Amino acid sequence: MRQQTNSLAQLALQKFKKNLWGVLSFIFIICCIFLAVFAYFIAPDDSENANQMHLSIHSKAPGFTVQMLQIPGQNQLEESWVKQLFFGKQSSGTEHPISSYHFSENKLIVIPYSGANEKALEKEYQLSENFPSELSKSAIERNYIYQKKFLLGTDKYGRDLLSRILIGTRISLSIGFVAVFISLLIGISLGALAGYFGGKLDAAIMWLINVTWSIPTLLLVIAITLALGKGFWQVFIAVGLTMWVEVARVVRGQVISVKQMQYITAAKALGYNSRRIIKNHILPNVMAPVIVISAANFAAAILIESGLSFLGIGAQPPMPSWGSMIKDHYSYIILGKAYLAIIPGLAIMSLVMAFMLIGNALRDAFDVK
After folding, report:
1. Rounded to an integer, what distance in angstroms lies between the CA atom of residue 34 and that of residue 168?
2. Are residues 170 and 318 in the same domain?
3. Which of 224, 290, 294, 328 is spaced 20 to 30 Å from 250 by Cα?
4. Are 199 and 313 found together in one domain?
5. Final residue in a domain of this structure, among 105, 127, 154
6. What are phi and psi of 133, to 5 degrees?
7. What contacts 354, CB < 8 A, 6 or more positions away?
């Protein structure tokens, strides 16, 4: 029996490998997961939530380059690489865009950046007060004054758009994983109970499924979000609680079909209890369509979270979210800076499309015909 299971799994894997779009989507998703995990190590702005604001260089086009002066934080704390991996640097100092600079005795005199054709008033920084005392002028120039290039430009607050996009990948993938996990946990449990036992329990669960199904998904998510409160984890739970219905319906139908098989009758004759039969004999044989649905639900969760963030009840600022980026910049489309909204929109579209394509590939791979 185990060899047969392995051979069927290997057959499905071989069919999946032959699907070009499915393989490319899988590789793309793996790359997105890698970027999400190591976002703070890859992003040019590694501060917490990539929230370094430079209002003087807001809404700059992709490829914009400016000279930066970094003023180190007064209380620099040693942070472990694990903390930096998950939360970024919390005390990395502040950056100031400048047009030019020069040293005068024990002062650093700079002209802040205020536009290509505009000139701002000079600003002075005492070397002993703003930089480590043991550094010479050349060391300060080498370590704290540098050229910075914004590959995707800056948003309306002057933050690095590439860094925000990379860290925003975490939000989309996290909500997908958590929402799918919650939907599978609830949907498989209720669907298996309804399909196996039938009767009044089946009628009660189907009533709950039909009531939940009749409520518009976005409206239900908004209601749950308002009940739980605005926040990061509240959105995850709200989305997950609205996506279990389809899983439950599919699992129920599959269980009703599978429980008529002879090996289930044999298991009952051997005296196995219902829990063991459902767990070890029924669920492993109904997981193929559930996996396909999970891929589609993953894509749906990303879209729902983006919609909630666009409405202002998803991930809260300054946490980067692709939906909130579109909300902040959709008005810039008519101002000739459409890329500020198009770039996060393309990120959402590409990730959702990847999950839909991998779902189609899995459906073809698990099709016994």
Report:
1. 13
2. yes
3. 224
4. yes
5. 154
6. -65, -25
7. 25, 28, 29, 32
Domain count along the chain: 2
Give the pair of three-digit tokens for residue 225. Answer: 């979000």
Q: Judge whether 55 lies within some domain.
A: no
Q: Output helix, strand, coil percentages for the chain, rounded to the nearest 5.
A: 65, 10, 25
Burial class from Cβ neighbours inside 10 Å (0-12, 13-18, 19+) for residue 105 reads exposed
In a domain, 39, yes or no: no
Predicted TM-score of the model (pTM): 0.86
DSSP state letter for 280 = I
On whether residue 44 sits in a domain, the answer given is no
Nearest 5°: the CA angle 15, 21, 27 is 95
* Inter-CA distances, 206 with 34, 194, 250, 252, 260, Å: 40, 8, 12, 9, 20
Structural domain for 127, as ranges: 65-154
**CA separation for the pair 181, 225 (Å, rounded):** 18
Asked if residue 253 is part of any domain, the answer here is: yes
First-to-final CA distance of the chain: 21
Q: Are residues 202 and 221 in the same domain?
A: yes
From 122, 154, 186, the end of a domain falls on 154
Q: What is the pLDDT along the chain (369 residues), one digit of tens a residue?
A: 444 445 667 888 888 889 999 999 999 999 999 999 999 999 998 888 888 898 889 999 999 999 999 888 766 566 777 777 787 877 667 888 998 888 888 889 999 998 766 677 888 888 888 888 778 888 888 888 999 999 999 999 999 999 999 999 998 898 889 889 999 999 999 999 999 998 999 999 999 999 988 888 778 888 887 788 777 778 888 888 888 999 999 999 999 999 888 888 898 888 888 889 998 889 888 888 898 899 889 999 999 888 888 888 878 888 898 999 999 998 888 888 899 999 999 999 999 999 999 988 988 888 755
- Supply 280's token pair: 């070890």
**What gap in Å lies between CA 111 and CA 199, rounded to an integer?**
79
- Whether the CB-CB separation of 53 and 15 falls below 8 Å is answered with no
